[in-house]
Predict the structure of Cytochrome b.
Amino acid sequence: MSAAAPHAKGWSTLSVALHWTIVVLIVVQFIDHEWMVDLWRATRRAAPIDATTEAWGWVHIVAGSLILIATLARLLDRYAHGRPPYPAEEPTWASWLARITHGLIYAILILMPIAGLIAWFGMIGEAGEIHEFLWTPLLVLIGLHVIGALAQQFWFKTGVLKRIFVPGTV
Ligand code: HEM
Ligand code: HEM
């Protein structure tokens, strides 16, 4: 079955669970990223690190790695089971905007943790800069995505919002 199989019966339970797991993990990254920056700077300068910074820094590394795994698992599941069709009620431009937004979100959720891992385990500053650079585009895309989801619900009046909460809803 292709990645865009139109006859998929809603999102799978795994896909819905991973969507919300990734949301929670991104909130965790939002909260802990300043500690990670402190840990990174102190480690590179061989400066002393307090226990709180170290603990939250490692939360960042673990949560970020889990985002990578969850995103890859989500894409595999999407490839195996397809995704529900884009609603016929919405205009074509809106479906294309959604496709592009989703594609870029997936790309950043893969590239960003890989750049972070390369920066940290290789102590490579350029990878850290790429990692940092991707944060703002990710936030903008998430903002666009959430506005899109709310527009689906209240403007185009499709049932798309329900299907990301209830597996099997088309
Ligand atoms: C999608 C997952 C991830 C997100 C959303 C994320 C987010 C962030 C953010 C917002 C910053 C602060 C950037 C700044 O203001 O300077 C940061 C810094 C950093 N993160 Fe992540 N991170 C993720 C995964 C990872 C992973 C898996 C690692 C692996 C060790 C990692 C390592 C780092 C490092 C080393 C820095 C400091 C880079 C610098 O300041 O140049 N991150 N991350
Ligand atoms: C960190 C925040 C979020 C990220 C990274 C994210 C990412 C994604 C991705 C990658 C998809 C899959 C699209 C596909 O494979 O075709 C998706 C679907 C979806 N998301 Fe999110 N999402 C986030 C937050 C939210 C929030 C807060 C809402 C609700 C207000 C939401 C509503 C939806 C809906 C309704 C779908 C299904 C779209 C459809 O069936 O056509 N998302 N999300």
Notes: Residues 13-163 form one domain. Residues 19, 22-23, 26, 78, 83-84, 86, 102, 105-106, 142, 145-146, 149, 160-161, 163-164 surround protoporphyrin IX containing FE (ligand 2) (CB under 6 Å).
